[in-house]
Amino acid sequence: MTSLLVLRWVHLLAAATWTGGLIVLAALVVALRRAGAERSLLQAAARQFGRVSWAAMGVALVTGVVQVELHGWPWTYGRLHTKLGLVALTVGLAAYHQRTASRSSPALRGVVQLLILIASLGVFGAAVALRAG
Fold it and tell me: How far apart are CA 102 and CA 118, in angstroms?
């Protein structure tokens, strides 16, 4: 197994952890709310997800940059810009959500979480397009 293949595997695992975690957390929050869970329990789940997801995002960012360099892709490559733009949007939305969630309404939190998930799925789509090109 080449180092590039290992790097790609780690990158994909980190990205899957981030995006898959969003989907699992969304389902978990709905189930916990329906079961009458207290807000403190929901906050604890969100905090733990935050620890794991931010670590995964960091790994994905580092391994992504290294892959671009190893592939020799120019940083001016249009499809790469699309993916990087979606990554920046995702990180920005997640950071905004993390800073404002404690004082936002449940409806606003839900909208922001949905936007984070859509942007994250967009990153996956851009990654597929990047590899296809």
Answer: 22
Give the CB-side neighbour count of residue 14, counting CA atoms within 13 A: 18
**C-beta separation of 49 from 21 below 8 A:** yes
Instruction: Decide: pTM greater than 0.85.
Output: yes
Tens-place pLDDT, residues 59-83: 999 999 999 999 888 888 889 999 9
CA 71/CA 75 separation, integer angstroms: 11
- Rounded CA separation 131/127 (Å): 6
Distance CA 127, CA 68 (A): 12
For 57, the enclosing helix (H) or strand (E) is helix 39-71
CB burial of residue 30 (10 Å; 0-12, 13-18, 19+): exposed
- Token match 């851009």: residue? 126
* Res. 86: pLDDT tops 80: yes
What is the rounded distance in angstroms from the CA atom of residue 83 to the CA atom of residue 103?
A: 31
Any idea of the CA torsion for 106, 108, 113, 117, to the nearest 10 degrees?
140
